[in-house]
């Protein structure tokens, strides 16, 4: 009987010790998760603080910005946005940016999809060499090629036209696009193409009707990236679009900055106008964009 009592008490002690260890492990896990969320929250606030400050300044008067630039606006006003759109000619600049960005995005996506499909699904002589030759474009900064690019565009007679921005932007966007879509197409089952060919599809139909719709997440990611890069481009249009009538929206921000003074209210309004299209594109393609990034990471 004493032996059974001792064994029962030892089991109770062991159970209590196990419960204590379990509660401590849960407590440590909860504290660790809380610290991680706090760290992520701090990083989020640091990243969003300049954007929120800019948006608040776009709806404040010049006097409010000069008195306390960090304070919330006392009364929201749209006068800065209206003045930036009309007096600052942002309507014209937005139109110029659209005329450049849309052809660049469409060309990069279409050419990258066809090239990525070819590199991923077909074997031909020199395939690896050509593919790595394209990837060299990811390693070359624009600053190292802008002077010869300027003279090439000038010799072609394209300087001061929209094509002076469109053609180089397409060429600079292809390396990343081909790399992204090639990785995605390579991860798709080959049986899909074989089944389509058995059903009578030619090679272009296999690409266009079967595999390209499956690559929608990667295509959406490429659209977001390329739209953002082209819309925010500054150095290339500054170099190649040297006419006032062709000035894109990023160069239009210089209109509000003089040699000795800067109109921070109008600059904030202009930057707010610049960010709206990027936010709209990202929100519209957010789900496909995140799926494309996840799929690219898993297949890469």
SS-based class = mainly alpha
Which residues sit in consecutive blocks of at least 5 with pLDDT less than 50? Answer: 296-300
Beta fraction of the residues? under 5%
Shape: flat
Number of helices: 14
Largest sheet: none
Question: What fraction, in percent, of the residue positions are helical?
Answer: over 70%
Q: Gyration radius, to the nearest Å? A: 28 Å
Average pLDDT, rounded to a whole number, is 82
Distance between the termini: 66 Å
Note the run of SSEs as H and E.
HHHHHHHHHHHHHH
What this model shows, in words?
The chain is built from 14 helices and no strands. It is flat. The longest helix is centred in the N-terminal third of the chain and has 57 residues, at 2-58. Helix 7 packs antiparallel against helix 10 (216-231) and helix 10 (216-231) packs antiparallel against helix 13. 76% of the residues lie in helices and 0% in strands. The protein has helices at 2-58, 62-67, 79-86, 90-121, 127-135, 146-155, 163-186, 190-198, 203-214, 216-231, 235-240, 249-252, 264-284, 286-299. It is mainly alpha-helical and 300 residues long.
List keywords for this structure.
300 residues; mainly alpha; 14 helices; 76% helix; disordered C terminus
Give a short overview.
With 300 residues, this protein is an all-alpha fold. Helices cover 76% and strands 0% of the residues. It is built from 14 helices and no strands.
Question: What secondary-structure arrangement, pairings included, does this model have?
Answer:
Blueprint: H1 2-58, H2 62-67, H3 79-86, H4 90-121, H5 127-135, H6 146-155, H7 163-186, H8 190-198, H9 203-214, H10 216-231, H11 235-240, H12 249-252, H13 264-284, H14 286-299
Helix pairs in contact: 1-13, 3-13, 4-7, 4-10, 7-10, 8-9, 10-13, 10-14
